[in-house]
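Annual report, structural modelling task.

Input specification for the flavin-adenine dinucleotide complex:
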Amino acid sequence: MSQAIIVGGGAAGLGAAFRLLEKGWQVRVLEKSPHIGGLASSVDTSGTTIERFYHHHFVGQDHIVAMAERLGLSDRLHWGTTKMGFISEGELYPFNGPLDLLRFSPLPFLSRVRLGMSIAWFGVLKNWEPLDKRYAKELLLTYSGKPAWDKVWGPLLRLKYGDLLEEVSAAWIWERVHSRRKSQKLGKGKESLGYIRGGSGLLLQHLAKAVRELGGVIETGCHVEAILCEDGRCVGVQESGRKLDADAVVATVPVQVLARLAPTLPKDYIDRLANIEYQAALCVLVRLKKSLSPYYWINVADVKNTFAVIIEHTHLAPIEDYNGEVVVYLGSYLRRDHPWVTAPEDEVAKAYIADLFRLFPDLSQDDIIGYSVGREALAQPVFKRNFASIKPTLETPVQRLFLATTAQSFPESRSVNTALKLGSEAADLAERLCGANAHRP
Ligand SMILES: Cc1cc2nc3c(=O)[nH]c(=O)nc-3n(C[C@H](O)[C@H](O)[C@H](O)COP(=O)(O)OP(=O)(O)OC[C@H]3O[C@@H](n4cnc5c(N)ncnc54)[C@H](O)[C@@H]3O)c2cc1C
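The model returned the following structure:
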């Protein structure tokens, strides 16, 4: 029986493990954290579980829907229509469609029309490939104009990518516009989003249970120190000084971690991976006694603000699941070396909540029931111009070593859906190239 080692127990790792077990492999998943789930892992709150980072799912994300069905969780997948707002210069505006845009007073009237037309044009473009050759900033300045760049796009891109915003691929804009349009089309004009009640972490807990029931082994608290390669072929991994042999290894870690774990990978491959930069994610999850606004998602286009988005989660997930408490994420992306990535949690939460009070003066300390902080340094691969030319494939230059990682979702934003898909595709490739019926080199 062929043996596989999966490095990482997030959605991609568990998805790969499940698929390989179905194909008759012996599988061992090694996860460095004390728990499984990775970026989609959960914390306990208000008597239930919820993701550390906000999560929702789009209509058309078939892999997560199929997995929920497979695991008997279809009744937990809740779909809702949501509203979007936009804060500019301290004022909150509705931001849901052409009419809201025409009333968006921070922009001169003609700029509103131009912004709307440019978004419509990005929406009808069929292919993202030519856009990957252009910078997002150049595209947006050309088609939406400078006022729209200064008031809308620029602050949004800066809050997501910081100083790297100048380098972001225009294909990223294409994907953002298309995924929203698709979701609105299927929701008959309204944004329709999905949520797994209990969190994506719950789905992954069920997936981990299914992996174990099929005979797979999942070890948490296991930090893989090295991926072992000999003569251009992967032979296993090293963890806590022990050497574990395998017929195939599937790495689901960020590419920079892969480069560190397998320094004997060819230099040109490592150099290519080194070009992929990551932003850190930081979310403060706040439980409140009252609602902030009618909006699920509010973009905060103020670069002096600590956070870029406010997600009032209980406008998507039923509030009864949280004992009637309003659950809000204050989300931001930061440079990996930003002091807040390592500062004490209370200090970070206080700074974020102070900005929330500034934006919502009716809110006071008495309205705060509690908070927690979620942080991850290698959370968001930055899709720079020409990303398609450096995007790594599932197959690596070393035989029997496969890669299923967030950076491969390009041009789509990384998601649990894509992670499950990539994990499963890496498993299929491992079976084809290294399974019992394969001609093994
Ligand atoms: C702020 C934020 C918001 C998001 N919003 C959404 C959303 O709305 N919808 C959505 O679908 N997705 C969302 N995502 C993305 C989604 O969570 C991820 O794309 C998905 O969970 C990635 O899964 P993965 O298995 O590829 O990677 P990860 O979850 O990163 O898993 C990799 C695992 O490898 C482990 N690991 C690393 N190094 C080692 C080592 N040396 N040894 C052993 N284990 C190791 C890590 O601990 C981790 O558990 C969001 C993410 C963030 C940060």
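Residues 7-13, 30-33, 38-40, 53-57, 223-224, 252-253, 257, 281, 283, 331, 376, 379, 405-406, 414-417, 419 surround flavin-adenine dinucleotide (CB under 6 Å).
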